[in-house]
Amino acid sequence: PRTPTPNVTMKFLVLALTATSASAFTGGRSAARANTRMMADVAVEEAAEPAAPAYPTLNGWTADESKFCWGLPGALSPMGDFDPVGLSKDLDLTEMKRFREAEVTHGRVAMTAVLGFLVAESF
Questions:
Q1: How far apart are CA 62 and CA 9, in angstroms?
Q2: Is the pTM of this model over 0.85?
């Protein structure tokens, strides 16, 4: 009996993972039909025109100064509105967006650094 080489095993593994992961992006037909039926059953109500928001809507999000962090998405269910030091208190919308952008940027740098450590370990 021939033992498969690591190269052949790796190619087979990549092929199998590619074939199975591609099915994750296809939607089920029955779910689409059920959604269409539910949408058809909902009565369309004509509502009065809502008042224009004080801030522009961007990608479906409108700033709301009464909410935590101006209503920006990102609160986790077990932690909720997590700001133990109070860094987000008394910030205007532009400063809050700047803080959020800095948080995302630092997270990306940290992930790249971890990747660098892992790559360096293999050499």
A1: 51
A2: no
Instruction: Specify the residue for token string 């205007």.
Output: 92
**Grouped pLDDT means (10 residues each) for the chain, 123 residues:** 68 72 55 53 58 74 85 80 85 90 95 95 82
Tokens of 45: 């109500």
Tokens of 18: 């590619």
The contacts of residue 68 (CB under 8 Å, 6+ apart) are 75, 81, 83, 88
Q: How far apart are CA 92 and CA 95, in angstroms?
A: 6
Closest by alpha carbon to 104, among 73, 62, 63?
A: 73
Contact criterion met (CB below 8 Å) for 70 and 88: no
